[in-house]
Amino acid sequence: MIYIPITSELIAQSLSKALYELSRPLSTQLTEDVSEYYCGWLVHPITKEVVLILPEDDLLPVNSLANDRALDKFLKPFQNAQKITGEDIEKVRNAIATNKDKQIKVIDFLPQYWLDSAKTQEQLEGGNWFINNMGNSI
């Protein structure tokens, strides 16, 4: 797993949902579907920082109806802050477009900036992200 820092729990939830919708666009979802998220997220118990939990080797099936621009709203703020470029956004769009009816690793099309800021399990453990009910680090 890799852990991508996200600015808020709401954005983590929305991004996970947008990734899920690449494989299950709203028009294909059923009322009896039991999930609406691709991955989980963690909130630091003290600082309230948020990370999105992405599986490194998981293959995401991309539906033929997937929206190529589904992740734009999550990427644009990074472009505006000059952390990523328009080329980075285009890479994500192209990865979605060229992998419809195929599978792709999510980490293979994320902007390098996001991957460079990713944390490891060990870093989270060292940062007291996992505290048991007794208030001790796990």
List keywords for this structure.
5 helices, two-stranded antiparallel ribbon, 138 residues, three-stranded antiparallel sheet, alpha+beta
Question: Would you mind describing this structure in some detail?
Answer:
- With 138 residues, the protein is of the alpha+beta class.
- The chain has helices at residues 9-23, 72-80, 86-98, 112-116, 121-126; strands at 2-6, 41-43, 50-54, 59-62, 102-105.
- Strands 1-3-2 form a three-stranded antiparallel β-sheet, covered by helices on one side.
- A hairpin with a 6-residue loop joins strand 2 and strand 3 (50-54).
- The longest helix is centred in the first third of the chain and has 15 residues, at 9-23.
- The chain is globular, with a radius of gyration of 16 Å.
- 20% of the residues are buried.
- The model has no long low-confidence stretch (mean pLDDT 90).
Query: Strand sequence of the main sheet, in spatial order?
Result: 1-3-2
- Count of strand segments: 5
Tally of alpha and pi helices: 5
* Elements, N to C (H/E): EHEEEHHEHH
Overall shape: globular
Structural class: alpha+beta
Strand fraction: 15-25%
Tally of separate domains: 1
Share of helical residues: 25-40%
What is shown here, in short?
With 138 residues, this protein is α+β, with helices and mostly antiparallel strands. The protein is built from five helices and five strands, in the order βαβββααβαα.
